[in-house]
Amino acid sequence: MVGLVASLATVLLSPALWAAWIAVAGFAALSATGVHDMRQARHAILRNYPVIGHLRFLLEYIRPEMRQYFIESDSEAAPFSRAQRSLVYQRAKGEPDNRPFGTQLNVTIAGYEWINHSMVPTKIANHDFRITIGASCAQPYDASVFNISAMSFGSLSANAILALNKGAKAGGFAHDTGEGSISQHHRVHGGDLIWEIGSGYFGCRNDDGTFNEERFVANACDPQVKMIEIKLSQGAKPGHGGVLPGPKVTAEISAARGVPIGVDCISPSSHSAFSTPVELMQFVAKLRDLSGGKPTGFKFCLGHPWEWFAIVKAMQQTGITPDFIVVDGAEGGTGAAPVEFSDHVGAPLQEGLLLVHNTLIGVGLRDRIKIGCAGKVITAFDLARMMALGADWCNAARGFMMALGCIQAQTCHTGHCPTGVTTQDPQRQQALVVPDKADRVQNFHRSTLHALQELVQAAGLDHPRQITAHHIVRRISDTEVRLLSNLVMQVQPGALLGSLDKQHNVFRTYWPLATATSFQPVLTPSSASQELALAA
After folding, report:
1. How far apart, in whole angstroms, are the C-alpha atoms of residue 140 and residue 146?
2. For the domain with range 130-460, which CATH number is right: 3.60.20.10, 3.40.50.720, 2.60.40.10, 3.20.20.70?
3. Single pTM value for the model
4. Is residue 103 over pLDDT 70?
5. pLDDT in tens, 329-348
6. Is the Cβ–Cβ distance between 354 and 389 less than 8 Å?
7. Is the per-residue pLDDT at 54 higher than 60?
8. In the chain, where are the structural domains located?
């Protein structure tokens, strides 16, 4: 008996058996962790990458200790981008966003900006700042000053659209459909929609790709649609069309866009419903009438100045004005685009917004037209700064994508998005749990506007609309700072209705070249010589 016990003890205590037991226990623990990861709803990464996804969160946890490594190894701009992502994640998750040890930025470098505060701060009742768009329309829209920018179903997954719209409904802000039109997923939760109509006329097209009035009316008169936005161009790739390959045109995308299943879906680089500035204004008026009097406008990334001036002259000639204009900055864009277009085509948001805002002031139309903007707008200071430059409201794409869980893996175009945000793969997009991410979308919106409220109060103001370029200060060099109002273009009301002699060169050069009847410049010997002289 003693020998039997001794033999059994020898076997149980042998190194080989203990190693086997440890292996079994480890496998069981990893299996249990994997099952838990796939069943939990909080982290999309863990749902798609059970067990190994924890490595990312481990690195995130020790990030403060690794900060110096990151700063030394990345470009100078990268740490700020990382700080922005961290801020969005914190706000989306409802976590405190206060940080110790002062500013995260180098306040001594040129380009650093801040907003001046007041010795007598105000107290604002709430952060739900709103503006009325289309006040003279039959159905004006009382919009939030912060909304979801254009991102189409097809570019985003069904679950991403569902979460964005559910968050917009709960938070009382607008969700831009993108030019992919209104899908069934946009309609589930009933959040306010801005219907974007691009050159492919998706959702309101004939079989040959031209505009169809009846199909437009069917969608536009839906009470969920609050505004109609004609997309002339986008910041990510202005002047560039697009093709969604046939294999990616699923039944859902076919139904939303009104295109055949499995056939290449082409978005032309220009519109067929109009070809001149006057015709554009007539198209705006037509869509406003067909929609039952809903605010109607257009979105564009500024290109040739004379084309923008031609649109303004068409407003003057026809007496037709859009209810709003959205200025898209070339630095924005969450979708895939050719590198050259992303980096070197189109005007950045600041330049585009300033020219649009000042031109409308100069011709006396600014009070009739609201201006929205988009282009890397993420934080409350971004909102404040854009409003100081002339915007009435701001849209954001990447901020809300990060609220959904996007980690900027930059695999959007491959269909292999690790968090289920930009994929049509049913298995991958199941990682994005709609109720959880909808809460995060609402949290991000609410927390960002709360931060804007605190900025406005600190500046001694009552509403973001009161922020001007006089409130923003920029460092020019180690020894010089200047108010933004002293650095940017400012046109006096009605100044472009008279002589242009004392106006900015962009008006003196290009305003005479613009005509309401064509997007092409009108070159005469005198205007050509004037252009060359001013350029020199």
Report:
1. 17
2. 3.20.20.70
3. 0.87
4. yes
5. 988 776 667 778 777 888 99
6. yes
7. yes
8. 130-460, 484-535
